[in-house]
């Protein structure tokens, strides 16, 4: 399992800059030292290492203005490319930018990495200044005002968010928000600040609530997808905590984890659905939740009789 880290020691920074030079400067015969600029001390740096401590991926972000941040120097070692590490680095830097209130994330991409940044949600805006004079670059921009995550069936997702707020008011106080729904994966996030305990980490009860609601939301959207109705209740929930949450609480439920049939609802009978929710802190898996939910046809009866 890969983990995004922040270099902190002199040795880690030495390794980080050497990797940046080897990946992004050496191939074009630029001397060592050319990989650094005047923003290093005020930038956010991130890296991913393998089990032997060797660097596999790096990236940097600095503020151009209070509402604009620039991503630079993303590199993944050739034999580790195509495994999602580049995207993990961009996503980690983007999370920092969002936390700092950034509205516009920019990058000056080489032609060759345009498809990569497009896949991370950036769009080409114009031709970019060419600082090293050799490689043509395009300025690509990702606006962070809206959540740019994919939201399939926006109307159902809005309804789900409203249902959480109206029927479970504490979910609002916990800052629980539906973050993305792709049709296969549902992701919900919560505010760490609103759920913090005396250790500065997320309260375990809040993690359980976020996971429960994520599974609940997945079933809610599956009912919509199938044109069914029902009252969803949690019958049994089991959670394993491995690590504390100190950054960004995220819960993901993938459709592959659902086990059970919705058909009994068509005969006015209750349906039993089991599912799994993965709990992450930023990009790091920290806990797993498994839940057994019952979907009761009673609400449907009530509506029909009303
Ligand atoms: C560009 C680079 C950072 C991408 O890193 P990576 O770890 O290989 O990319 P990922 O595996 O995270 O890919 C993320 C997405 O980008 C897409 N992608 C990456 N490189 C791509 C390419 N050359 N063509 C098309 N799509 C590409 C992937 O298909 C994937 O899409 P998906 O998530 O929709 O499936 C890496 O190839 C690299 O270091 N290149 C050399 C240095 C460089 O050009 N840095 C950018 C400086 S401007």
Overview of this structure, please?
By secondary structure, this protein is α+β, with helices and mostly antiparallel strands. It is built from seven helices and 14 strands. It has helices at 10-24, 85-99, 114-119, 154-167, 169-173, 204-226, 298-305, and strands spanning 4-5, 44-49, 55-65, 68-76, 104-110, 123-127, 137-143, 177-181, 185-189, 231-241, 249-254, 259-260, 271-281, 284-296. It is elongated. Mean pLDDT is 90; it is low at 300-306.
Characterize the largest beta sheet: strand count, sense, and whether it forms a barrel.
7 strands, mixed
End-to-end C-alpha gap:
53 Å
CATH topology of the largest domain: Thiol Ester Dehydrase, Chain A
H/E element order: EHEEEHEHEEHHEEHEEEEEH
Number of strands: 14
Secondary structure: helix percent: 25-40%
Q: What's the quaternary structure here?
A: single chain
Show unreliable segments. Answer: 300-306
Question: CATH class of the largest domain, please?
Answer: Alpha Beta
Q: For this structure, what is the CATH homologous superfamily of the largest domain?
A: Hotdog Thioesterase
The count of helical stretches stands at 7
Helical/strand content category: alpha+beta
Overall CATH architecture of the largest domain: Roll
Q: What percent strand? A: 25-35%
So what's the overall shape? elongated
Average pLDDT for all residues: 90
Radius of gyration: 22 Å
List the helices and strands and how they pair.
Elements: E1 4-5, H1 10-24, E2 44-49, E3 55-65, E4 68-76, H2 85-99, E5 104-110, H3 114-119, E6 123-127, E7 137-143, H4 154-167, H5 169-173, E8 177-181, E9 185-189, H6 204-226, E10 231-241, E11 249-254, E12 259-260, E13 271-281, E14 284-296, H7 298-305
Parallel strand pairs: 4-5
Antiparallel strand pairs: 1-2, 2-3, 3-4, 5-7, 6-7, 8-9, 9-11, 10-14, 11-13, 12-13, 13-14
Coenzyme A binds next to strand 4, helix 2, strand 5 and helix 3.
